[in-house]
Each structure stands twice: as structure tokens, then as C-alpha cells.
């Protein structure tokens, strides 16, 4: 038996319905012929009436079948639509799986690269600890590299240790540091209605997608000024964010204008000695330092130092970071006596508060040794470099003895006298 399609069934049903309708009309005509008054025999009339009833029943069933067929067509159309949606969702799911797989591969490659660099770093440290170089040659090479770096970019070493406030790199700022730079010491939270937008701006800026970050930040500023007014701490925070975005784009003039505006707002709303004011002052000092305006940056850095000393105490690690910043600014101006004083004080704070093995101790000693080299104080620089190497060797391989122990002891004694 041949299976009929739905359309063929509907065509057949319509044909049968038309035939039944014609038969009905014919029977009705024969039951009461037009123009005749004679009555048919009762038996014939009963048969015709029965046939007519069955024909009407057939017509009713045909109409029901037509309605059912129409409903089935609608159901089939909806079913096809749902199948199309399912296929599209499957395609999107496959695409997302591919994206996830690619991301996982990139992450694995990054982890392998980090592990390789870590191993290389350990190897270099080991080689440095067991090799004996001529002291004068080491000093000459160090000074040569520092001078070359300075010639390439005179502010490339500006504020290398101030991770919570600023890093003087021309590449986009990582998201965690970017957020810390903006909100460090602010003492308040971003409103919930703007937190998502705030995080998006930071994320896009950290990826270098400034064409997205800048409009988002400007929209946030516009919304804040409409709801809270221009003189509001949250407006100052968004101004800081936009300023850092401009700074990463080397738009220093625009960044400076925004930071000065944020500074005025924070001084007015939070007070002149608030930690948020110190954060903005430091951001502005870094910006001036990147432009080579060391004389303009120095008083800003000093004021930030005074605020942090008053709020946090003179022995706080953040005060030591600010001292390092100030020392680097003075070093770019050739004020080596002040540089020595600031580094020595920062070193004392780090050793007392964080311990002799904290990385900031070694960094500060290295910076101070660099200052000694620039002044031709090679002996003092040698002592500090040996202290750093000795401490690194003891952490990695244990205590040293023999001749190395003698010069290490002498280095520690000379440093304590200084």
C-alpha cells in the first residue's frame, strides 16, 4: 500500500468533500424535484433521506479532517522552526567549545613559558653566585648598562618599586595594578550601579582597547556628574581612571588636566591630607616624571610623602615606597645627597617592617648602589652589591664560609656604620 503524503491526503479529502456536497445537492433535488408536486413512494423517500443523512455525516467528517490536517501543518511548521533553533544552538555550542579549547591551549603555553623562564632565572642566579668576576669590570658594565638605559629613555627607571600607585611602563597597565592605582587609599567603594562599567573600563584599558575604554569612561563620568554633581569623590575616581588610560596612550597633556581636576575634587571633598589625595599627587608626579619635568614632579612627590607620613606613620612601608619615588626623581636631577638620604631611610623601614629577605630590601640596596656608582663611590656600591648577592646565595644554598664569609661580614659591618 502506497503511503500518501499530507498534501495528497488533503487534496483527496477536498475532492471527496466536493463530491459529497454535489451528491447531497442531487439527492435533495431528487427528494423534492423542482416543478413536481407528486410524492414519491414512502420506501424510496426513506432511502433517499437515509442516503442524505449519511452524505451530511460524510461532509462533517471531511470538514473535521480538513481542520485536523491544517492543525498538523501548523504543528509541523513549528517543529521545523524549533529544529532550526536547535541546530543554531548546537553550532554556537561547538564554536564556544572551540574558543574554550583555544584559550586553554594558550593558557597552557603561557604556563610552560613562565615555568621555562623561572628555570632560566634560577640558573642565572646560580651562575651569578658561583662565578667570580673582576670587581672593576662588574662596576664598569653596570654603569655602562645604566647609562645606555638612561640615554634610550631618561625616565624608564622612574618609580620602579611603586607598584600600588604607578609603574612607569609604556605598555598597558595590568588590570590589578590599574585598579590599585585608581582606588589606592580612596576610602570608599565605587557605586554598585557603576561597578560593572568601572571594571569594564579597567579591563579594556589593560588590553590596550582604548577605543572602547575611553567612551565607556566618558559615559560613566557623564552619568556620575548628572546624578552626583561634578564635585564628588566618585567623579574624581573616574577622572583618575581616564587619566591613566590617556597616560598609557601617551596623551600626557589630557592626562595631566584630568589628574589636576581629580586632585582639586578630592582636596575639596575629602580634605587636603586624605590618602586619596596622596595617591592622585603621586599619579601626577609620575606623569610629570615621564615627560621629564622632574622639578615639577618633586614637590608633588614630597607632598604625597608628607600626607602618608601623617596618616600612616613614618615607619610604614608605603612611606618607604614614596621615599623611593622621591629618590628617583632627585637622582634624575643629580641631587645625589638627597637621593642617598631617601634611599637609606627607605631601606631602614623595609628592613624593620618587612624583614631583610623582603624583595624591596634588595631593590632599594640596588638603587642605592646605582646612586653610588653615578658618584664614583665604587667601594660603597661594591659593598651593597655583595650584600645583595650574599643574601640571595644564603636563601638559595645556605650560609657561605671561607673568604666569601670574610668579605660578606666586612660588607655588613661597613653598611651598619653608614
From TrEMBL:
Q: Name one GO cellular component term.
A: kinesin complex
Q: What is the lineage of its organism?
A: Eukaryota, Metazoa, Ecdysozoa, Arthropoda, Hexapoda
Subunit structure and binding partners: Oligomeric complex composed of two heavy chains and two light chains.
A Pfam family:
TPR_12
Top-rank taxon: Eukaryota
What Gene Ontology terms describe what this protein does at the molecular function level? Answer: kinesin binding
Residue spans of the TPR repeats: 320-353
Task: Return the InterPro entries for the record.
Answer: Kinesin_light, Kinesin_light_repeat, TPR-like_helical_dom_sf, TPR_rpt
- Report the locations given in the UniProt record: Cytoplasm, Cytoskeleton
- Gene3D superfamilies per the record? Tetratricopeptide repeat domain
Q: Which UniProt keywords apply?
A: Coiled coil, Cytoplasm, Cytoskeleton, Microtubule, Motor protein, Repeat, TPR repeat
Main subcellular localisation? cytoplasm
Protein name per UniProt: Kinesin light chain
Which processes are annotated in GO (biological process)? microtubule-based movement
Asked if the record carries the keyword Lipid metabolism, the reply is no
Coiled-coil positions are: 65-120
Q: Belongs to which family?
A: Belongs to the kinesin light chain family.
Which purpose does this protein serve, as stated in its record? Kinesin is a microtubule-associated force-producing protein that play a role in organelle transport.
Q: Where is the composition biased (Basic and acidic residues)?
A: 135-153
Chain positions covered by the region annotation Disordered: 135-179
Report the SUPFAM superfamilies cross-referenced here. Answer: TPR-like
